[in-house]
Known about the structure:
Aminopeptidase; 4-stranded antiparallel sheet; 22% strand
Amino acid sequence: MKLIRADQDQFQFELSQSERLRLVHILKLYPLVPEAHHRLSKGRKIPNREENQQLLEDALKHQRQENRKALESMLNEPKRFVKCPAGYRVGFSRGEIEWLLQVLNDVRVGSWIALGSPEQQEEVIKELNEQNTPHFIAMELASYFECYFLNAVSGELKPFEEPALPVVLGKTIEFPNPGLADADGMVAAGGDLSVARLLAAYRQGIFPWTVEPITWWSPDPRGIIELDDFHVSESLSKVIRKKPFEVTFDKAFQQVMQGCATPGPKRRGTWITPEFIEAYTELYKKGHAHSVECWQDGKLVGGIYGVAIGGLFAGESMFHLVDNASKVALYHLIQHLQERRFMLFDIQMVTAATEPLGAKAISRSAYLKRLAIAVGRECSF
């Protein structure tokens, strides 16, 4: 993003296509601050508090509705975003930018509230998971655009000065070096979830995590399970011997993904959106993604799925509706990978569920070295 021109009341910016999409997406998230956070002070004596509180809420609701209409009108103006060789150029008056700053602030604060209102950003980073990552990304992007526009109208940003922004992918499927990922492990944003791009990403130790916007990650450290070190507890061993489940491979791939995407008692949300299900189902149809299913009385009660390239298997997610079903599926997957001479089982991050099973964290550099060897091995799932 570049500031092209700035005078007393008019500002013009240049954005790539992906930057334009991200800006529009973030603005369309408005409003995010919950209405419950707009409360009259309890520490002051206010006559007719309930009546005045209702008046406040009605006024805020009306203001938000009007802001939303004005925002939609602005974004849909035919001449607002003008195509140029670098992508798009967009112009805003000082008053429009000051209004956009309020919108972006609402999105940033609303995302922060959704994250639990942490006092320090480090607290969020340590707790990033599939539920809160979209809120974190929305907060970061809203903050980026908010700071950029604020610096532009304050005069601190001069035309053609460009702050750092994560690499934005274009039409080609090439990725940046994952070793250059930011401190959180984010490598790039944008692109698509095509089969070719997904395979290119996994071959380089990169995977997607969100779809709005699409973001690509290579965390450091990286979670793996050594195939020879998978830990089978005594209780799990008893379950395996009793054979309470019928175990199959690649019989219900999309059902397994949908099971992983469905919130459960310990999973309130998920990053597995319909876009992910569609993209990985296409990988499955092309023979690059696989699933292990556990059935009981003809019903799917657990499973795991992932991506296979050469001697790499990248486990994506697992679920269970019956105790131990996902662990049994994982056990049979490990056995299968060993039989087929796979070399590397990637689980992205070590979790409380996988650590007792033998999961461990290794550095990104160590993972990438092992990955380069693994993807070169000829293995058939």
